[in-house]
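Schema walk-through. Below, the input block comes first and the output block second. Nothing else is stored per chain. Lengths vary across the set, and this one has 302 residues.
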Amino acid sequence: MRRRRIGAYGLCRDDEGRVLLTRSSKTADIAGVWQVPGGGVAHGEHPATALAREFAEETGLRIEVVEVSAVLSDLSRLGGPDEDVHTDRVVYRVRPTGGTLRSEPNDTTDLVAWVSPEELPRLPLMPFTAELLGQPVTPLPEPPPGAVRRPLPPLPPNAGQRFAAYGLVTDPDGRVLLSLIAQGYPGAGRWHLPGGGTDHGEQPATGLLRELVEEAGQLGRVTDLIDVTHLHSPAASGPEGRPMNWHSVRVIYRVEVDVPTEARVTEAPGGSTAAAAWFLVAEAATLPLTDVAALGLERLGR
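--- output ---
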């Protein structure tokens, strides 16, 4: 069975260059592995809010989110012997603002520590943490036979959680690319940033470039990570044919198309994109826009 999970994590360093890490306890799926603090994003929760909650639980510290540092995805079978779990991980750079450092009592972590760069190679690290910290990435050990894996928390009834990647896409003339949401989908008739939900096992930036081809027939390159937002629609009306309690976490990238062509939708009929077009920024600002597109245009105007 395939499952999706969204997590938020904090990259925290002190004045000596040490990084704050937590160690998984015996009650975790894999014991003794170190990672940056953080955990799952609850349905309807902003990733930054989830991180503040998880950070306080695991370390005793209150934090301030400074900026989005990275967004990456990975696959594991830690949700159960028959579950293929795809985790989208939003990593923020954070700084402590208060609290007292302490280990988490009686839960999935049992130790928190400041770790120096010299100590990192000697620690077993979660693969995503090793990647973040520039360490060699090694596979996780298999749980021992008979180990009890913690099931993923279920979603509320008639609810969905979605991870999506969108692009603030421009060409050498400074035009911006937008896509028109088709009828029958939430936001129908509004112009949106190109992009959409990522596939199981797909990295966010890769999913965005795939969507860029499907929605507008353009080849682009990702140049920057702009922001991560979320949208909770308790009664969204879409292709499901009934109101759905949707929670979407959206990563927004800066994308450049060096050789633009006439925008055209290449995905199969019946998809969520009705049209795509290049616009001057001043012209795009007069269109009916989604919140993500409005945010993107605001960034271009800075």
